[in-house]
Amino acid sequence: MKLPLTFLLVAASILAAAIDRCDCKVVQFIFGDSLSDVGNNQYLSRSLAKANLPWYGIDFGDGLPNGRYTNGRTVADIIGDAMGLPRPPAFLDPSLTDDVILKNGVNYASGGGGILNETGSLFIQRLCFYKQIELFQATQDVVRAKVGGRAADKFFQSARYVVALGSNDFINNYLMPIYGDSYKYNDQSFISYLVNTLGAQLKLLHSLGARELMVFGLGPMGCIPLQLVLSSTGGCQERVNNLALSFNQATSKLVDGLSKTLPNASFRFGHAYDVVNDVISNPGKYGFSNSNSPCCSFGRIRPALTCVPLSKLCKDRSKYFFWDEYHPSDTANQIIAKELIKKFGFAAINQTEAPSAAPEPAVAPSSDG
What domains can you pick out in the chain, each with its CATH number? Predict the structure, then answer.
């Protein structure tokens, strides 16, 4: 029996729709370092860069360490909540499944990771940006097997992407004499090397479907507590801050150019350098009592580098801009996120579920600091 051509075409369309069907919502894929890590490094057995001890996570959920290098939320957490996006779990979380990926997206950020492969090698194990992209490709294979090629393409092209790396490439690479990059390059040539590498990585993400992509700039790295301790004057290190400013300027130009030249790309660059610098210079203006030392520390023993169970906590964690020697507190991250939301002009994305709730402050021992 010979079937009409029209019937065959309709049947083929119905079959294709059945194969490539996915009632997928908009999710996030996050690439970054310790400022965005939500637990990947906890599953790297040999990593020396972990946030798996108290008092990390003290103001998040049950108050136990969860892989975030702060007392509460990351900047990406807060921005995602404001947009109505689900919080993506760590890629290395053993509970991650294809259904979880389709519902929540994935976070590949890794403490100590950088744009460059060589960055953070002192930490033994960490996921550099190229490795994170490789894991994203593995994620795509899983999703394609689950929902089919066309539905997967739609899913990945409608997703939101966050790229927040760069500080480790300076602090845990170029500015440390044990790394070859510290004597192979000068300030300008290193920034060119770094930004050119980032450009290739962003193009690769675009080829993999990234269309709505946000690149976060660097803050005044020379003013983090660790740099203040290492400074001969006890003040912000001007050279380090200038490196951050130069990186931001070059990356902003890169991102604008890619957004104009890559098909259907909406790549945007946002930095909170100015507001963070203002908070550090005028903490009282923003409700902080301290912007130059960590809330979680060994007191006069500096630098302590990480927060550990024997550390003492400040009386009011909401009044300290820095949580440890490197990372901002939850309250500080709120200010940074608010600034980026304003710069990016973010709008809420319709979802079937409400945004994740903000963490409730937990009770912990405090010192008189």
Answer: 24-221+237-274+328-344 (3.40.50)
- Side chain identity at residue 137, one-letter code: Q
**What is the number of residues in the chain?**
369
Q: Show pLDDT as tens, one digit a residue, over the chain (369 residues).
A: 454 544 444 444 444 444 466 778 999 999 999 999 999 999 999 999 999 999 999 999 999 999 999 999 999 999 999 999 999 999 999 999 999 999 999 999 999 999 999 999 999 999 999 999 999 999 999 999 999 999 999 999 999 999 999 999 999 999 999 999 999 999 999 999 999 999 999 999 999 999 999 999 999 999 999 999 988 888 999 999 999 999 999 999 999 999 999 999 999 999 899 999 999 999 999 999 999 999 999 877 788 778 999 999 999 999 999 999 999 999 999 999 999 999 888 878 855 454 545 555 555 454 544
Tokens of 80: 């995602």
Task: Determine contact, residues 36/75, Cβ cutoff 8 Å.
Answer: yes
Torsion of CA 292, 120, 173, 206, to 10 degrees: -100
Q: Which pTM value belongs to this model?
A: 0.91
Active site residues: 34, 324, 327
